[in-house]
Amino acid sequence: MPIQHINADIALQARARQDSLTKPRGSLGKLEDIACWFATRQAKIIPDTLKPHISIFAADHGVTIEGISAFPSAVTGEMVKNFASGGASINVLAKQAHASLHIIDVGVRVDTSSIDGVQQCKTTIGTANILHQQAMTQEACQKAMNAGKHEAMQAIQQHKNVLIAGDMGIGNTTASAALICLFTHEKPKHIVGKGTGIDDKTYVHKIQIVQDIINRVTHQNTSPADYLTEVGGFEIAAMAGFYLAAAEQGVPMIIDGFISAAAALVAQNIKPEVTQWMLASHLSEESGHQQALDHLKLQPLLNFNMRLGEGSGAALVVPLLQSAIALHRDMATFVSADISSKT
Which of 31, 215, 246, 301 is the most exposed place for a label (fewest CB within 10 A)? Predict the structure, then answer.
């Protein structure tokens, strides 16, 4: 299914409205750009108030056996339980943003079926160790992507008009770093970050592991179409599917941090136009996030030195986006307020 086109005529009309509001032209800076961005994608000169939905995709990673994380892989399942009980950062931020929130297990090692509020779309119990072998089969990858597409479609059918994908998976910064290196052709030392907060010794080790993963893949002459199956994660695959489905339906997405950017690169490789429907929420503290955003041609709205994941940065900016739309909608114009405009 093709990606929806952007309405350029609406963009001009929305900008004209911004320029007619009772303020010096451009004085609200990026808030003006945000309002026009949503107007263009909703095909409405005055866009509707946002109705956000957040989907957290969770899965485990076999590469954790290489000692690249400060936390054991058991934390993935434990955090899924925390999400379901409402105790995580994303729960707080979703509530503040008036966003619906779903948690989807697409490959957690432990059985989460007894946890209320966790949707079961498990492909298998985590990926293989990508240092030595392919992360997943093509069939498993497609199943995870389909889970993400289905989740996006469900949200759109519930009339949600902006979508956020969050992630949970110990080891997924290693998989994401490998993906970002492969898509951007950057060296691991420029991309790999400290993830969950590893010490300097582990950080050096992690860089070498990612370099060895890249070497394995490049020696096989793997094409970009297969990067996801070679080094990705099931949650990353689901997020990529989620992004593609949203863009195909013409629904904007707020991209979170490092993991989300890796998934966005996967989606971009499949359908380059998908990035027209993406808004980058923030710049992650993870080293390679800026390079990933540069490749996506996205500019982050905030830089709060965050590196949590979960969709937290994307959820955080929702009230800011709502303010931009409210200003665009509710401010008086020079004509309606009977104020002289600049001559």
Answer: 215
Please give the full DSSP string across 91-125, using - where no structure is assigned.
Answer: HHHHHHTT-EEEEEEEE-SS--TTSTTEEE---SS
Asked whether residue 308 carries a pLDDT value surpassing 60, the answer given is yes
Assigned domain for 24 exists: no
User: Which domain CATH number covers 129?
Assistant: 3.40.50.10210
The answer to the question of residue 18 being in a domain is no
CB < 8 Å & 24+ apart, contacts of 212-219? 212/131, 213/63, 213/130, 213/131, 213/174, 213/178, 214/178, 214/181, 214/182, 214/188, 216/131, 216/132, 217/178, 217/182
- pLDDT-derived band at 276, boundaries 50, 70, 90: very high
Tell me the per-residue pLDDT of 38-85, one tens digit each, with 9 for 90 and over: 999 999 999 999 999 999 999 999 999 999 999 999 999 999 999 999
Residue 282, beta-bridge partner list: 302
CA-based torsion, 312, 318, 321, 327: positive or negative: negative
Q: Does residue 122 lie in a domain region?
A: yes
Strand blocks (E) in the chain: 52-59, 100-107, 118-120, 162-168, 253-255, 278-280
Q: State the total domains in the chain.
A: 1
CA dihedral 292, 298, 301, 302 (to 10 degrees): 10
Catalytic residues: 310
Phi, psi angles (nearest 5°) of residue 134? -60, 140
Question: Looking at the chain, how many residues does it have?
Answer: 343
State yes or no: pLDDT of 342 exceeds 90.
no
Report the distance separating Cα 252 and Cα 272, nearest Å: 15
Between the CA atoms of 103, 105, 106 and 107, what dihedral angle is there, to the nearest 10 degrees? 140
Asked if the structure places residue 171 within a domain, the reply is yes
pLDDT band at 343 (very low <50, low <70, confident <90, very high): low
| CA-wise closest residue to 13 among 39, 52, 33 | 39
Which amino acid does the sequence have at 14? A
Q: CA–CA separation, 283 vs 291, rounded Å?
A: 10
Number of C-alpha atoms within 13 angstroms, CB side, residue 44?
13
| 3-class secondary structure, 56 | strand
Question: Can you say how many angstroms the Cα of residue 309 is from the centroid of all Cα atoms in its chain?
Answer: 9
What Cα–Cα distance (Å) separates residue 303 from each residue in 256, 299, 314? 12, 11, 12
